[in-house]
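User: Could you check the structure of this?
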Amino acid sequence: MPKPGGTIEGPRSWRAAWLTLAILSVSYGSPLLAVVGLREMQAALHTDRSVLSLASALVWIGNGAGGIPMGWLADRIGIRRTVLFGAVMMAAGLALSSTGSVRALLVGHGLFIGFLGNGAIYAPLIVYVSRWFDRRRGTAIALISSGQYVAGMIWPSLLGIGIARYGWQTAMLAYGGVVLALVLPMLALLRPSPEPVAAPASEAGHPSAGRVLGLAPNTAMVLICLASFLCCVPMAIPSSHLVAFCGDIGIADGAAMVSVMTACAFLSRQFWGAFADRFGGLRTVLAGSAFQMVTIAAFTLTRNEAGLFAVSAAFGLGFSGIIPAYAVAIRELYPSKEASWRIPTVLFTGMSGMAFGSWYAGWMVDLFASYQPAFASGVVFNLANLIVVLVLLGGSIWRGGGSVAAVARWIILARRWSGSRSRV
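Assistant: Sure, the predicted structure tokens are below.
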């Protein structure tokens, strides 16, 4: 336990963060099989693309929904046992999904890979690592959340080779073995987080019974969850459909494009983590979401291979800091003891947005035989997210004396300018 005015951070904190990154880099490879093998699976199962997109959607829903009870469970039985359970369930889900029926695929992905698998791994580990840090929490959460992008850099090309040579069913079964072989040995190195943790000064002014951003705590929470959903709908469209989109327009390097996108996301996420430490979680969401909206719009205008590589890289640079910033915002605005349910709840709404966006894009393609309407509607969802975040930030802007003074100066200057124009 830290001394008053001290910090809980140290070498053990960073060891916990790097170990968590390694675990998530493996666990997040499992949903990529349905992304990389989407066209092959559609041909084998003789079904609509929206049905197969539903498998990816159910992973996100299950991941988010499972994080809420699993976060509670990890506080009671320990992080090691919780992650062990998740890894075993994930391997079981891949085995079930490989049996070759649509029903088995949906149950395997939604229940076992999503709810019981990643649900027991991702959100509990986010909370776990957040309790090891009090000064560079944004940087640490950004680092571990990059496990999704490390997985995106490593696994798509390897999975593509495996699917091409051995078929998607064998590739799924083999990856279940990879999960067990890599994750289980790492669990022995997980150590309990340093609790009870003295609340840092940044949290002292945010008791659960007080106001949050000028609102009732749960009202602010609802708006944060809404913003999380809205920004994740467009985020899911390239993440889940880029390989299929490239195949539809005659580009064979879709898997490589996903790797480029996720590599850029990994590199920029470290910048966004430092940005969150400096400017706060919600301002990081605002900046990242604005960048994401521009790049989603660019997907509607680009059809050549070089241009799509550039847009994919830019998309990775922009969207990567958004989800970790929500976790940082919750830790800034609410007490540490509430993190085990508030962080998973926000992650659940975000992943529900990812799920909806993944399914919705597939449905739009079935309806219009083109991805352009899906990308265009993604811009609309992103704009709605920006409006909600601006509403949340509006209370803090008007309560800040410096901000109010700055706004007042602009109003005075505008009046003087309009007065001089009228005299002319």
